[in-house]
Amino acid sequence: MTIHPKIAEVTERVRQRSRESRALYLRRLDAAKKAGVRRAGLACGNLAHGFAACGVDDKAALKGEIMPNIGIITAYNDMLSAHQPYETYPEVIRAAAREAGGIAQVAGGVPAMCDGVTQGQTGMELSLFSRDAIAMAAAVGLSHNMFDAAMFLGICDKIVPGLMIAALSFGHIPTVFVPAGPMTTGLPNGEKARIRQLYAEGKVGRAELLEAESASYHGPGTCTFYGTANTNQMMMEIMGLHLPGSSFVNPNTPLREALTKAATKRALAITALGNEFTPIGEIVDEKVIVNGVVGLNATGGSTNHTMHMVAIAKAAGIQLTWDDFSDISDTVPLLARVYPNGLADVNHFHAAGGMSFLIRELLGAGYLHEDVKTVWGHGLAAYTSEPKLGEGGAVVWGEGASESLDEKILAPVAKAFAPNGGLKVLSGNLGRAVIKVSAVKPDRHVIEAPAKVFETQDGLLAAFKAGELTGDFVAVIRFQGPKANGMPELHKLTPTLGILQDRGQRVALLTDGRMSGASGKVPAAIHVTPEAVAGGPIARIRDGDMIRLDAVTGKLDVLVDPAEFAARLPSEPDLAENEHGMGRELFAMFRAHATAAESGAGVF
């Protein structure tokens, strides 16, 4: 398969940029591979602690190094709908491992918070940094050196990126990621959005809003809109870290359980004790990282990954930049319309042909590297297959969808919804930012309007309720970056700004905070770097300054005399209230040492 020239160019650019850091990573990985898993080399007291709670047969097997042992890292909790199904996975995995001649132990648990619960709440200020806390917690679990392979049970927003960073830090260990699937379809996304806007306008009450939200988020599984959680699942599959076709099978179904058993057997097959040794650090190379970014753009995925993929790549010694995202977005067509980029949900996407059709189309047009390693073997073409239940309840893979069953949701390359992925990097005298315009109407891609400046999202909401948000304007919400308050998502702004836009006002958002999968029909320049608290120019904007946001040319500027703007003193709000309560004092280290959004917004 011939790779598209621009994809080849970006991949080579990433490879050259990463030459030294990737070589260092691979040298360390090789050293760890040679050292291997040394259960038999552990002191007797160490090993006795490692299998003290095991059954007699497992103890006997773990005394040697012949039977492979899987370490399970789980993000289970039963408050999080997406992770509640993981409660039964360890027993399923243990049974499947024994059947295949192996052992499995839960190596550790990691925190899993729900952004849906914390949106607009104080707890959201812990959300982004929970990624790095998850990576450290997973590393603790794997540090016992008892495991020949790992299985990671995680699905939602910061959890999968955190698990990926941990997995790549143990890059010599073969690793399979195991999804739990989306909840079944509930209230249509368009109706949910309509009720939210009516509530924001005061036209329906809290009871009606809660009824609509409960009908949308109604059972086990991921939320069905295409936010960060489901973008995670797409990326794990297109990067070859899931079993083919496993990302969007609903929880608590026979096929879902059969796929988990198959993932267990595959994890055992790729250990160093077999003939297909496949460490995750060798799978995730420059081509696989580029494939992930291609998938992000082809599906209109979450802007959170402009930070998460940078951090994941860094963990593998690979240096990915926003310019790489932008160039890939300019090249790769948009093939999916899933809410908020359309009205369909991920179940509709899956039914229309899902990942097998998407990967087939992208491979056929040369947008994906086929010649990569995966947990399933060599080559991404295997991911154009689709799993079904065979005799005895085992999984069999057959040919996936060769055509879309609904081209309004999932389009072939020849009928793409847009010639590009809709993700654009903006640069100018306000720094750099990211904008996702795949759901923004073309006549809104350029906004030039006076600034209305706020230092909290609640300040904007109060102004809306007071009737002060009249005319065209760019809402500037600053001091929302990683160092200021942990970079919370500003999801509460979406209905309000949508109402104003629907009234005919030309509005946009400019912020050093996040919008994530909530990025929708209102143009939003997000992740502004440098952030306000780090002395970024956004801290010098004043009410009434003309702002030009141009997603066509990729420009982001304040239209003020340069000398006057440079002479201004930056705003210095009191951020003391961000430093304590709801656990925020425990995350002070993260805020103090966080890198910029463009560098991954983390502490590693």
Automatic annotation (TrEMBL):
Pinpoint the Dihydroxy-acid/6-phosphogluconate dehydratase N-terminal domain residues.
68-381
Give the cofactor binding note.
Binds 1 [4Fe-4S] cluster.
Key word 4Fe-4S present: yes
E.C. designation(s):
4.2.1.12
Dihydroxy-acid/6-phosphogluconate dehydratase C-terminal domain location: 408-601
What Pfam families has UniProt attached to this entry?
A: ILV_EDD_C (PF24877), ILVD_EDD_N (PF00920)
**GO CC terms for this protein?**
cytosol
Keywords (A to Z) from UniProt = 4Fe-4S, Carbohydrate metabolism, Gluconate utilization, Iron, Iron-sulfur, Lyase, Metal-binding
The record's catalysed reaction(s) read: 6-phospho-D-gluconate = 2-dehydro-3-deoxy-6-phospho-D-gluconate + H2O
Q: Which GO terms describe its biological process?
A: D-gluconate metabolic process; Entner-Doudoroff pathway through 6-phosphogluconate
List positions binding [4Fe-4S] cluster. 156, 223
Q: Which InterPro entries match?
A: 6-phosphgluc_deHydtase, Dihydro-acid_dehy_C, DiOHA_6PGluconate_deHydtase_CS, ILV_EDD_C, ILV_EDD_N, IlvD/EDD_N
- What domain of life does the UniProt record list for this protein's source? Bacteria
SUPFAM superfamilies per record: IlvD/EDD N-terminal domain-like, LeuD/IlvD-like
- Pathway stated in the Swiss-Prot or TrEMBL entry: Carbohydrate metabolism; Entner-Doudoroff pathway
Cofactor section: [4Fe-4S] cluster
Q: What class of enzyme is it?
A: lyase
**HAMAP family per the UniProt record, alphabetical:** Edd
PANTHER family, alphabetized:
D-XYLONATE DEHYDRATASE (PTHR43661), PHOSPHOGLUCONATE DEHYDRATASE (PTHR43661:SF1)
Output this protein's name. Answer: Phosphogluconate dehydratase
Write the lineage as a comma-separated list. Bacteria, Pseudomonadati, Pseudomonadota, Alphaproteobacteria, Hyphomicrobiales
Q: Which gene encodes it?
A: edd
